[in-house]
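W.,

You were right to be curious about this one. When I first looked at the sequence I had no strong expectations either way, so I just let the prediction run and decided to look at it fresh. Below is the sequence, 389 residues in total, followed by the output.
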Amino acid sequence: MIIEVKVPALAESIADATVVTWLKKVGDYVSREEHLTDLETDKVTLEVTAPEAGVLKAIKHADGNVVHSNDVLAVIDTDAKGVVAAPKLAAEPKPAAPRAEAKLGPAVRKIAQEQNIDAATVSGSGRGGRVTKEDVLKAIEPPRVAVREEFTPSPGARTEERVPMTRLRARIAERLKQAQNTAAMLTTFNEVNMQPVMGLRDKYKERFQKEFGVKLGFMSFFTKACIEALRKFPVVNASVDGNDIVYHGYFDVGIAVGTERGLVVPVIHDADHYTFAQLEAKVVEFGQKARDGKLSLDELTGGTFTITNGGVFGSLLSTPILNPPQSAILGMHKIQDRPVVENGQIVARPMMYIALSYDHRIIDGQEAVQFLVAVKEALEDPARMLLQI
């Protein structure tokens, strides 16, 4: 039987994908669910596996080809299982170095050759021991920052280096420019006294971690505070579709995560159903998956509201850009002791500036300000989040 290996259905927001590198060649025997190739999209890298065991009869799209949903990538003949049998593979074992080379994609192999890295000495972290670009970069001292779209000039030298944008970086640029071109974007600011949240966190953090196996951070508090504010001001959770305003009766909260490849925004679907512990665990999971490039399309799809935390990088104040088609995004910032007046006295308090960028086409300034005030009040009196008041 002839079986077609197809490009998996891509999300609506993903137009196409690029074939990274084939791990098998025509004539090779493949097992069911064996890793055949990777597809790089502007959001995530997808593994393509064999739907059935058999002989790889044809490869329809070579390395570097752009493909779309349901395109035929390859053809497998399941009736030719005995044509390339296991004994033949066992009778012709490959030495260690060629095996390592075979697990290098073209781009990765080029980097290894340029840096005089012996592929046989590189430990692969990919599926089946496949050597990734990150594995090769770790073996290089100092690292080649150019592959990360960075450039460090040499003192006294007038040097330049041109590096193509990755698909992810190009997509980020496209979406951010789309937000600026289509939305009437405006930002409103406020500041939060983080002492109540920090006090509550300090009081229960050890018991919390012992009970749930995860640290109690700030993201769960902010997510809960935003959800309660979104309940009061549903237009902030809405989106624009042509001349219509689409109100969402659910809360799919995106959490912006910075990675070496660029910014990604995995989504906690139905975040209002999560406990504090579940939210913290999800944030940790997203962070690890983002660093490993293991986020799924479903985890990167959707979202009705986004939270981004520039404070982890030291940002004191910024204006976050909308994540289309969402109409609002909350920016967290660095916590810094500042003098404030309480009961006529000047005291030092751990303060954080918070920013709400919003689409003024559907969200009025009054609603944006009141939303941010609601977030501030919830964080300065955490009991409000429990009582939903």
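Here's what jumped out at me. Residues 195-212 form the longest helix (18 residues). And, maybe more interesting for your project: The domain at 94-164 is CATH 4.10.320.10 (Dihydrolipoamide Transferase).

Coffee later to discuss?

I.
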